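Quick start: load a record and inspect it. Here is Amino acid transporter transmembrane domain-containing protein:
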Amino acid sequence: MPRMGPDFSSRAAMLDLLVVIPIMTNAYICHFNVQPIYNELKEKTPQNMYKIGRISTVLCVVVYALTALSGYLLFGDDTESDVLTNFDKDLGIRFSSVLNNIVRIGYVIHLVLVFPVVHFSLRQTVDSLIFGELATPSRKKTLTLTVVLLALIYLGSTMIPNIWMAFKFTGATTGLALGFMFPALVALRLDKEGCRLGYVERLLSLGLLGLAIIVSVIGVVGNVYTLKSKSE
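Running the structure step on this input writes:
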């Protein structure tokens, strides 16, 4: 039976526990897709958007938890940071190669379906940053931006040896910023501009902002410390 909890006597294990929190934020950051999804709603109301957000979050929690638990029960302490790499070897069971291929095909389908959604928001953001108010629809411009962004993404993916490390830094910086810092700052800004928040709401916004900053700093420092320790 694999160990189901962290080793609190190990400093490295405790550091990994603090570092993994920012990584988990990556799994729930979809804020940049809120506007496109809202525009596609048949009935564009905040209530419908809240409902979609709640259902999506619950489904994500269930799927992520089942995936993580299944992987850890199957591989125990040998579970890799990218669990898919565990399926590159013989599992020691019947039809092991078939199961490995099913997992690979499922991951390919996942990437094919997810990447266009994320890339759409990325391209729109880059378009607005570069052209500003002149950002008018153009097939030529869209194709050019797509090719350039895909080339940069491919270049970055070939230069980063471990996707886990990329998730560590993006989770501790952009992930926490998009998911917690910016929403809290927006709420506090609206409070100053007439949309008054209640005492509890203001306190929650300040607490969320402060907690996100602390976790971000711990995450970045922990990642740098881990890299330095491995290099030595």
